[in-house]
Amino acid sequence: MLRFKQGDKDAGAISWFATHNTSITNKNTLISPDNKGYASYAWEHDHEGVRYLDDTPGFVAAFPNTNAGDMSPNLNLKPGSGPTEDEFENARIIGERQLDKAREIYDDARPVAGGVDSRLAYVDMENVTVRPEYTPDGEEHRTCPAVVGASTLAGSVEDGPAIPLFEEGMRTPIAPILEALRVDTPSWLATCQYPKASLIPTGLLSNVHPVTPKRLPLQIMKIGELHLVAAPGEFTIASGLRVRRTVAEQLGVPLDRVLLQGYANAYSQYVTTPEEYDAQNYEGGSTLYGRYTLPAYQQEYARIAQSLRAGTALDRGTVPADESGRQFTFQTGVVYDNPPSGKAFGAVLKAPEGSYARGSTATVEFATGHPKNNVRRGSTFLEVQRLENGTWKRVLDDGDWETTYRWTRLNGLTGTSKATVTWKIAADTAPGTYRIVHHGDAKNLLGKITPFTGATGTFTVG
């Protein structure tokens, strides 16, 4: 945990904890920050009074991941299950648990002493010779060109299956599927990657356009007594611990002064221990560079830590090419929008009830356009407004946990669609008169995009 102050004012916090952001299942179609996003939202919004659309001076609460490669928030070890059977409630509960512990630690924070420093090196992870002191058998080994294993396509039992017919622990790929993919893995590479059931040798397909990364940024940052190991992937609990131990030993600092910051600077799927790799579960199949991927990371991070401790310059290696201008997009455009017959954009298709009790849910529908016409950054698709002294005041928007916005295409040929807005009315909602407002944009046949607003009639909460 890092606590930040500007003068006498609290400005923010960073709290690290290892768990996947997969409380909400892969069948969800809503934009959601999952459990860690809820923790950030609740601290900023509920405890610090931040209102994102009001541009008020803010408090920033961040909940980054560490080595969460095999840590699931789904406590019943199946997608969307645990502590409850409601995936959204699970995200809230798991987020709240992280928040509660973070705030407890935050209150006991002490000043950080020491300077700020860092070292970074780009490493060709497909061609690392790993010295004996870092390998489990005390022999020299090498990493391999990247290969995606068959068990990668299985997904994980606890966080969500992926493709049928693929299972965790697969060591023999399904021949008909491999034949359909028409990707051959040379025998020397299959041997290097053993016991992985090689599915796609991405490292051999990257000559024209990279499929998976080859040169990765490895970094260690020093912030006072805290040392962050910036790792470009998802390290398992055990593999992250081994990296931390290696770095702590080289720096000569206690283990609790070293944290692994996962998903940092680049992304190269998972990193398991050699023992976990042998099991070829989802994480092992997703460990790209073979059985000795983790020992290679340990060796390279040890080299970086030695430079940081000694204060010496470090050869950064070859910086990979900037591929940002060559990325593919599979987003489709919007042809045109039309309102339902006899309706205008923003018209109410389903009206609210006349009154609601606190703890109930209000659901309304509007005639709308495609949300891709304007994704409303810094704005909102919806408002819950309360009548105060004759003036409508926004109390909630689409960034609040209690509200959802769902878009549905009613007819692709005519271009009609609807927006469904739900409001789960919290138990502490102020009684009064309310309405729900929808903001949208519609595109005509000539390509012109026009904004519109619609509002329901009034209803009471009490």
UniProtKB/TrEMBL annotation:
Transmembrane segments: none
GO cellular component terms listed in the entry, alphabetical order: extracellular region; membrane
Family: Belongs to the neutral ceramidase family.
Cofactor or coenzyme needed: Zn(2+)
Source species of the chain: Streptomyces filamentosus NRRL 15998
Active site: S72
Domain Neutral/alkaline non-lysosomal ceramidase N-terminal: 1-299
Gene Ontology molecular function, alphabetical: metal ion binding; N-acylsphingosine amidohydrolase activity
Binding residue positions for Zn(2+): H20, E234, Y270
Recorded superkingdom: Bacteria
UniProt keyword list: Hydrolase, Lipid metabolism, Metal-binding, Sphingolipid metabolism, Zinc
Catalysed reactions listed for this entry: an N-acylsphing-4-enine + H2O = sphing-4-enine + a fatty acid
Record's cofactor remark: Binds 1 zinc ion per subunit.
GO biological process annotation, one example: sphingosine biosynthetic process
Protein name, per record: Neutral ceramidase
